[in-house]
Specification:
The protein is built from five helices and four strands, in the order αββαααβαβ. The protein has helices at residues 2-26, 56-63, 67-72, 78-86, 102-118; strands at 28-30, 44-46, 99-100, 138-139. The longest helix has 25 residues, at 2-26.
Length: 163
Amino acid sequence: MPSLKKLLTFVLIVVYSYGQTFNSSQSCKELIMPFCKDILLYNQTKMPNHFGHQTQEEATKHFTLFRPIIDVQCKPNLRYFLCLLYTPTCNVTGKSFQKPCASVCNEVRYACESIINSYNFHWPSFLECGNFPDSGNCVEKLPEKRLETTALASSGQEGKFPV
């Protein structure tokens, strides 16, 4: 019965392949993070994110520490920049997600660093622009549109950004 053996082998391969595809797409979730879901051009995200957060809830807790700087609007699209990192687009192929380019990071840093310093913070090392790609598979330009923000009470923590 060589044909039965071949058939069973084929079925096992298909089942295994389906399981792999299903597992990788299972990580794709509806984007529910309140600060990002209304401004991004996609509605599915995949965790872990750029910072290693496993859930959107965990990412939201860390994102809220940026709210005072976002509310000051040192760079109108700072929130968009951060959302790209905290809630990356879902990529079912398993490839790394698209980060902002280093030039975009430098624009945001130039516009916001002095304000961050005035809150007794320093530009966070996890946002070091040298860690972002110069070109290629990266977001080269943030939207021109001025993004609306909502006020959020400061958490009272000073001097340290979480990861």
